[in-house]
Known about the structure:
single chain; 403 residues; alpha+beta; Aspartate Aminotransferase, domain 1; binds pyridoxal-5'-phosphate
Amino acid sequence: MNLRETQAPGAPQAPDFVPLIVPEIRGNEWHYVKECLDTNWVSSVGSYVERFERMVADQAGTRYAVATMNGTSALHIALMLAGVERDDEVLVSSLTFIAPANAIRYVGAWPVFMDSEPRYLQIDPVHTLDFLKSDCTWDGAALINRRTRRRVRAILPVHILGHPVDLNPILEIAEAFSLPVIEDATEGLGSTYRGRSVGGMGSVGCFSFNGNKIITTGGGGMLVTNSAEWAEKARYLTTQAKDDPIEYVHRAIGFNYRLTNLLAAVGCAQMESLDAYIQSKRQIAKRYNSALGGIPGITIPAEAEWAQSTYWMYTIRIDAGITHIDSRSLLRELHSRKIQTRPLWQPLHLSPAHAHPDGQACPVAEVIHRDAISLPCSVGLTIPDQDRVIDAIVDIVSRNPRS
Ligand SMILES: Cc1ncc(COP(=O)(O)O)c(C=O)c1O
């Protein structure tokens, strides 16, 4: 079953349905998987795992990479490497998919949500610095959140939608407050910040190869770092913390988080196509930008001069006061025309799963959430399908008279 079938409720979609994002399988995937099957190297040890790790480390510009079964497990291990413990706090973007906040809870710590900046929709370094300066205090060597009396232990910026976070200010803040930076680069593979790949600039970075990501292994993840010690510990923790090559002895609680050779084989083939996929995504974004950018009330995604975005998830914002149609009505209208779009995630400071009475206000994230809608942007989205999306939006917006 593929995403085309699973994304809509009920029956499989009609053939003229334009899905939001589907995987692109057009390289050596079959060939490499067949080799695994023919040679019996299907499980979590094998040459494709090592090769995939090397390819992602090279892409991220790190010395080490450890493959994991998904991005969430990579985040879980990254938090452990960073020394985050029960009842610590981790600063994290409010406007993100829920996985990083969940991973923070897996180690018993608490997310403290930071607002977004309004241009590129990423975590706001100004809010982050402001929180650390105004709301936290040193108690000996521990940085304490005054409101909760908990220790602040790490910063977890999330590069969302394929555009990088403005990372230098975050890295400077982190250094000033002696906090490790865990980059959630799960949506950012291939995007660069001041010429450097996301994921490789913090203490540790995490990627996802989930079905809707720019490359996919069906499900998979990767942790990258320049620390030999952390890489070794990650390998240890992801393989049940086995302490002896022969005897089954364990000094710690570990996890079965390793990626299989079969899936890594798919990952190697996908990585071979990454540059081509980025080019396609950027080309689609360029066409959308030129067709939609001039429409009053529609804000196209901005790319900072210090960034190269992959436009992983092409997202526009609708000012309903000007277009006279809000983002959710537009979503429904497009759906009735068999075009799949989706809203951004509920900001996590409002999420019933994570909201906290002592939490920070994140008003910018709330406005972005209200106005944003992501458009179909599969790597293989054809020009006729791009035109269908564009024509439909132009038509819907022009039917809603402006006063
Ligand atoms: C920002 C973010 N973090 C973490 C994840 C988790 O990755 P996975 O689904 O591979 O566990 C995802 C996506 O799925 C994501 O978008």
